[in-house]
Amino acid sequence: MELSVIIPIYNEEGNIAKLFSRLHQVILKLNLKEVEYIFINDGSKDRSLELIKELAQREPTVKYINLSRNFGHQIAVSAGLDNSKGDAVVIIDADLQDPPELIEDLYRKLLNGNEVVYAKRRSRQGEGPMKKLTAKLFYRILRNVTSINIPVDTGDFRIIDRKIVDVLKNMPEQQKFLRGQISWIGFNQTYVEYDRDERTAGKTGYTYKKMIRLALDGITSFSNFPLKIVTVAGFVVSGISFFMILYALYSRFISKDYQPGWASLMITVLFIGGIQLIGIGIIGEYISRMSANIRKRPLYVVRENNINNKS
Fold first, then answer.
1. Cβ-based neighbour number of residue 50 at 10 Å
2. How far are the Cα atoms of 41, 134, 185, 198, 200 from residue 3, in angstroms, in the given order?
3. Residue 34 and residue 2 in contact, taking contact as beta carbons nearer than 8 Å
4. Strand, helix or coil at 119?
């Protein structure tokens, strides 16, 4: 198998036919003999699975994996990677914001000695100012606080070599952040720039809640920066409290200029209590992720598929 194309699906009935048509045209230009398209239905509530099955009946190169429920975008992509057989693997979303035609450039660069070629966005069409601002801040904060160099302005749209896939399959953590894992793996990595299009049909499955969860997965999986912040904050608060104690003693016994009351006491208690709760919350987030990995539950559950030789 020369190439596998991984396509996670969540309520994309309006895009599936257009996406496959454009993908097929691109693959024809590459003159590849053996190609597979793997659609992963991640608990869609529309006709997505029905359309994928109809497509699979007409096209023998189309495979599908129907998950038992919605496990999330990163898990769906992982399911596709686990079942792919290609020497090279493309990851692309079904919303057509990432142009399938760019795969030709990605594949050419892969053949030039690279193991990872990711698509880097020059612009983002059809997205509001708030979405663009939060995305820009997220990528730059992530790059500065993590211990690895995660490229900014990139998503999961990329092509990777089989050796990268094999390493990813041996990284079974529950909180998947694939673009961070791929950066951590290393090898020769480069990029192709492009302008991201507006969504063709349907609504994005990435709500602000899911974006925040993805951001937490990225930061906690590849950085201990939040724990360092808690440590520094503890020292700062202790220092402030020490000087407040000295001031209180000076006012009480030397200057005799003080007002008895509860205001200063309440401010101090609330301030220190707030720092403690933030620290406990951050530490708890790390512990909960450790607990999820210790339980070793399956990353996903497959309801049905048409892939014979599952890996």
1. 13
2. 20, 34, 21, 27, 25
3. yes
4. strand
Taking only the tens of pLDDT, the chain with its 311 residues reads 899 999 999 999 889 999 999 999 999 999 888 999 999 999 999 999 999 999 999 999 999 999 999 988 889 999 999 999 999 999 999 888 889 999 999 999 999 999 999 988 887 665 666 666 666 676 666 666 666 777 777 888 999 999 999 999 988 777 787 888 888 888 899 998 888 776 555 565 555 566 666 666 666 666 666 666 766 676 676 667 667 666 666 666 677 666 665 456 655 665 676 677 677 767 776 776 666 667 677 888 999 999 874 43
The CA distance from 160 to 118, in Å, is 8
Task: Report the C-alpha gap between 9 and 283 in whole angstroms.
Answer: 34
The Cα-based distances of 127 to 62, 123, 135, 140, 196 in angstroms read 31, 10, 11, 19, 10
DSSP state of 45: S
Helix-helix angle 263-295:225-250, to 10 degrees: 160
Please enumerate, as own/partner, the contacts of 205-208 that have beta carbons within 8 Å and a separation of 24 or more. Answer: 205/10, 205/11, 205/73, 206/73, 208/134
Sign for the CA dihedral angle at 82, 60, 102, 133 comes to: negative
pTM confidence score: 0.70
Beta-carbon count within 10 A of 57 CB: 10
Q: In whole angstroms, what is the distance from residue 164 CA to residue 181 CA?
A: 10
254-257: Cβ within 8 A, 24+ apart = none
Give the relative orientation of helices 208-222 and 178-185 as an angle to the nearest 10 degrees.
30
User: In the structure encoding, which two tokens stand for residue 269, read together?
Assistant: 């208690």
Q: The tokens of 77 are what?
A: 């992509």
